[in-house]
Amino acid sequence: MGTVKNELHNWKNDDNMPVDLNDAYHANNQSVKVSRETVAKTIQEITGVEMLGDVYTMGTSVADGLLAAPLSAVSPVIPAVIPGTEAAADTAEDIVRRGGNADQAVLGSVISFTANTAFNLFSFGDLQALSQTSVAGVKDVFRNLITSAFVNLTEDSISWAVDQLADQLVMGDLSRYNQAVQGYMQNGLSREAAQRQAGWDMAKDLTQTAVQGGLRGIAFSAGGMAY
Fold first, then answer.
1. What is the pLDDT of residues 141-189, one digit of tens each?
2. In angstroms, rounded to a whole number, what is the distance separating the alpha carbons of residues 154 and 188?
3. Does residue 79 contact residue 124 with C-beta atoms inside 8 Å?
4. Closest CA to 33 of 90, 106, 81, 100
5. For 26, 81, 153, 213, which has the most beta carbons within 10 A of its beta carbon?
6. Dihedral angle at the C-alpha atoms of 99, 105, 111, 112, nearest 10 degrees?
């Protein structure tokens, strides 16, 4: 990963070279993100319904999980590491864009990787268990769907909370929340109103994350029982 290589260079040479977001790894990761964001924005513009763009974004997230899911048959660690690595790259890129230095990018990405991988182990471990569980009737199907949705919803929500806390600790005044507050204040809101609006933004983001997790859990459950 480019961020780690950059930090090793700084440590070895007592340097402070910034993270290069144009290296092959970060460039590819950004290309995928930009493509998906463009599609979501196009959907919103064509339909005039902002929610449909959000639905598309949630759908791609669920699809990513389903593509990695078959690997849980080998070990839940393998598919858990994949989204963990992607989350680490996203975090490093986000920190650099917000003015963070290389040390902050590495620390933030390490925390993101560790948290996302650890929590995803529960999701893919649950999927592996479902694939080995016999289903006797409709009640079993319904119970498995609800259980898996709850496990994934909880995992994603806790992971989101850890990410926000880590961002506040690592970035300080440059955290997403503080920058959002400053942005609203520059647009004329009082500090209290800006903090309230930034809080609502975070609540919306958490809700979307939880819904994504629940939908992925239902998809995982259906796939696990079918498998």
1. 787 788 878 888 888 898 899 999 999 999 999 999 999 999 999 999 9
2. 36
3. yes
4. 90
5. 213
6. 80
Phi-psi region of 20 (alpha: psi -120 to 50; beta: other; left: phi over 0): beta
Is-contact 106 89, C-beta < 8 A? no
For residues 205 and 199, give the distance between their C-alpha atoms in angstroms, rounded to a whole number.
10
Euclidean distance between CA atoms 57 and 60, whole angstroms: 5
Digit-coded pLDDT (tens) for 25-44: 556 656 666 777 787 788 87
CA distance 100 to 172: 10
Its pTM stands at 0.67
∠ CA 57-217-32, rounded to 5°: 30
Residue the block writes with tokens 């290589």: 5
Would you list the DSSP string of 123-173? HHHHHHHHHTS---SHHHHHHHHHHHHHHHHHHHHHHHHHHHHHHHHHHGG
Report d(CA 57, CA 63) in Å as an integer. 10
In degrees, rounded to 5, the angle at the alpha carbon of residue 207 between the alpha carbons of residues 61 and 201 is 105
| The token pair that represents 33 in the structure block | 């993100």
Query: Among 150, 176, 171, which Cα is nearest to 100's?
Result: 171
Q: Which residue has the tokens 């119970």?
A: 143
The number of residues making up the chain comes to: 227
Q: State both tokens at 38.
A: 């463009």
Token reading at 49: 């319904």
